[in-house]
Design a protein that fits this description.
By secondary structure, the protein is of the alpha+beta class. It has two domains: 165 residues, YacF-like; 73 residues, YacF-like, CATH 2.60.440. 50% of the residues lie in helices and 19% in strands. The strands form two sheets. The protein has a four-stranded antiparallel β-sheet.
C-alpha cells in the first residue's frame, strides 16, 4: 500500500514540508558518495532558508504546548492508560525544553563565514562548481569520515526542531485509525457537517497504478483518483478504487 497525505491547513503543510527536508537531509548525509553529501549540504541550506522566512521554532513550541494541555485534560477520563499518558507528556516536555533552550535556529551556521559564502554560491545554478568555489571542492576531497563529522556538526543545531516536529506529526497521525472505503467511478465524497480535520491520509494498492487528489473543508472531503498517460499527464479514473482513509485531528 502506498500512503498519500493531504494537509488541511497551511500550518500542517509547512510541518510536512520541513519533515520532508529532514528526511532528505538524514538520508544523504549518511551516504557514501560525495555527491550525496552535496545534496545534504544543499538541503541543509533549504532548512536554513525556511527558518529565516518563518518562525518555525515558535510554531513548534506552540503546538507542543497545545498538545500538552490537550493530553493533560485526558487524565480524568475513564479508560485512559495513565502510565502511557505520563510517558507522552514527559516526551513533550523534553522536546519543548530542548527547543526552548535554543536561540535562533541554525545561528551557528549563519555565523560561519565559509558556510555563508557557500550558501550564496549554492543558490546560483552551478555556482558551487570547482571553478567557482575551489574550497568547497577541496572539502569534498576529504575522507568520508571527516565530511560526515562536519555534517553532523552542521545538522546538530536543527535536531531539537526535528524532535519537536516529529512528535507533533506522530501525535497527529496516531489520532485516527483508517477506514476501508471505495471510490465509485474513481471518486469519493464525504459530507462533514461543519467538522474540520488537520490531515487526511489515504492508502491505495500500488498495483492499481493510481494516485489520489484530495481536498477538504468544513463541509466535505473529496478524493479523486487519477492515473497518468504516456506523457505523464494525469487522467481521471472511471472505475471503482478500494482505499483506506484516515481523518486526523488533535
Amino acid at each position: 500500500m502506498v500512503l498519500y497525505e493531504y494537509p488541511c491547513n497551511e500550518r500542517v503543510r509547512a510541518l510536512l514540508r520541513v519533515e520532508y527536508l529532514f528526511d532528505r537531509l538524514f538520508y544523504f548525509a549518511d551516504g557514501q558518495d560525495v555527491r550525496l553529501h552535496q545534496v545534504a549540504v544543499s538541503t541543509l541550506f533549504d532548512l536554513l532558508d525556511i527558518s529565516d522566512r518563518t518562525d518555525l521554532r515558535g510554531s513548534v513550541l506552540q503546538d507542543l504546548e497545545r498538545q500538552r494541555v490537550t493530553l493533560g485534560g485526558l487524565r480524568q477520563h475513564p479508560g485512559v492508560d495513565i502510565a502511557t499518558l505520563d510517558r507522552m507528556l514527559a516526551e513533550i516536555q523534553d522536546a519543548s525544553a530542548n527547543l526552548a533552550a535554543q536561540g535562533r535556529i541554525g545561528q551557528v551556521l549563519r555565523e560561519n563565514e565559509w558556510l555563508a559564502s557557500l550558501r550564496g554560491r549554492v543558490a546560483v545554478p552551478g555556482g558551487s562548481s570547482p571553478v567557482d568555489m575551489p574550497s568547497y571542492y577541496a572539502w569534498q576531497l576529504k575522507p568520508r569520515e571527516l565530511r560526515c563529522h562536519d555534517l553532523q556538526q552542521w545538522v546538530a543545531p536543527f535536531l531539537p526542531l526535528q524532535q519537536g516536529l516529529a512528535l507533533i506529526l506522530r501525535l497527529l497521525r496516531e489520532s485516527s485509525t483508517p477506514d476501508s472505503l471505495e471510490a465509485e467511478q474513481g471518486a469519493y465524497q464525504e459530507m462533514l457537517g461543519g467538522k474540520t480535520f488537520q490531515l487526511l491520509r489515504v492508502w491505495v494498492d500500488q498495483a492499481l497504478d493510481v494516485f489520489p487528489e484530495m481536498s477538504a473543508n468544513k463541509y466535505v472531503i473529496w478524493v479523486r483518483f487519477s492515473t497518468t498517460d504516456q506523457e505523464l499527464k494525469p487522467q481521471p479514473v472511471g472505475r471503482a478504487i478500494p482505499f483506506l482513509l484516515s481523518r486526523c485531528n488533535v
